[in-house]
Amino acid sequence: MTSTQATKSTFTTRTNLALAAAAAATTSDIKYRVLYLKLHGVAATTRAILAISGAEWESIYPTDWAVQKKQVPLGVMPVLYETHQESGLTLEIPESEAIERYLARKFLLFGQDLWEETAINVFYSSSNAVMAHYVTKVLLAFPDTKSRELEKFVTKEVPAWIEQHEKWLGRNGLNGHYVGDQLSIADIRSVICLDRYISLPECKGLFSDEKTPGLFKLKSTLEQNERYWAWIHSQDFEDINVSTRQRLAVLSG
To answer: For residue 242, which of 2, 13, 23, 192 sits 20 to 30 Å off, Cα-Cα?
Structure first.
């Protein structure tokens, strides 16, 4: 991020008509950039939403985080930059869940009314909580407690997540969605979590067409989305995959 881009970026807590109008806009002159490490991590869902939306976007990576950290809101990544090319205004949004919810509303991934949005938020938040538990209690555990925490996660947290989500996916008719018959942020987030858990050798046996039909239907339905399928088979995605595997190998060691 250059100093010029930093100057044009806008993040404020004050109501501003220009900002409000920009945030509500979905015009084709908008370009998005996602500042994060070359890892899936907490940017995975944001990138997936942008890929599915058909918007113009790209991943950008910090070149000197010690300096850039002082220039971004809250000093954290990821950061979403939404640039309105006609006006030159750039909205700057930190915090992964805030970014994801913002994009979900913009790209109609939050249902058709307040109740559907609330239900979608429930499943989205549930999957986020389990993934956060995995990161904080397993990946970042001290070496002498890592194996014990992983066992607890695989034998307690993941089965509980499976049981509850299978129940509610079944109540929605096993149609590949949590709420109604439309794609939502909850669908996307849960599939990203599912793919991570499936990759764990310790989770072998927990997932199958017979044991987890709802989650597998969720995954297959999302993968039928042409834009999502193109994203997860792109070179950019594979490059992030490689970096993520390398980082996980270090953390798992």
So the answer is: 2
